[in-house]
Amino acid sequence: MNFTFGIITSGTVGKLVIDSIKKQNMKNFEIIIVGGSLPALQDESSYYDGVRHIKFNESLGKYTIKKNIITENSNFDNIVYMHDYYMLDDNWYDGFLNFGDDWDICMNVIENIDGTRFRDWCAWDDPDICFLDGGYHRIMLPSYSYNKTKYMYISGGYWISKKYVMKAEPLDESLGWGESEDVEWSKRVLPRYNYKMNIHSKVKLLKDKKLSAEYRDD
Questions:
Q1: For the chain, which terminus, N or C, has the lower number of CB atoms within 10 Å?
Q2: Taking the CB of residue 42, how many other CB atoms lie within 10 A of it?
């Protein structure tokens, strides 16, 4: 399995992130960074071999544009979309070899710094396990099953997709951070594609966001 790792940033991408990808021992992969800068390139160019940095006008302020740029520049069919505060677990690639390639869109386990679940297998306003609290939408983390797929959405910080899906269904570039761009894309796309959960692979957050979702085992 070959992967493109598309990382979006408005600053720099740390070595922990790059190292976590390189140590997977994948034969064919690439790293594309969109936005920000790579100041270490001048002093450690060999370390960043295989990393493509695409400059971005940060005044545009649209994460969706950056992610669509990743799609356009990817050389491989399997694309990982990730923000600069995610890193791969040491066994991430082995987990995908175990999981297989029969999917259009995929999620894997996401953990907070303390090991608790973050927004991986998300339900959005599922009437069985969620409720609208004062008009605010509720996001829940049901168990890793396929019982709630019609309510699923992908939180925009991290996901994996085939290139043909993203070419046919790019993110809406009129929407930016905090404007439910990930929900709009998910509700438009997920019902028509094979969306699967890979419990064998895991990524970890590099900053604590553990209060961002509530877990419910149903």
A1: C
A2: 7
Cα–Cα dist 51/216, whole Å: 39
Q: Is residue 112 left, alpha or beta, with left meaning phi > 0 and alpha meaning psi from -120 to 50?
A: beta
Residue 130 · residue 138 · CB < 8 Å: yes
SS3 of residue 51 by DSSP: strand
Going along the chain from its start, the domains and CATH numbers come out as 3-215 (3.90.550.10)
Q: Is the torsion defined by CA of 68, 73, 76, 79 positive or negative?
A: negative
Rounded CA Rg of the chain: 17
Per-residue pLDDT, 214: 46
Averages of pLDDT over runs of 10 residues in the chain (218 residues) are 95 89 93 82 59 87 90 97 96 97 97 92 76 62 88 93 98 85 94 96 83 41
Smallest CA-to-CA distance from 215 within 84, 76, 119 is with 119
User: E strand or H helix at 163, and its extent?
Assistant: helix 163-168
Q: pLDDT at position 43, please?
A: 53
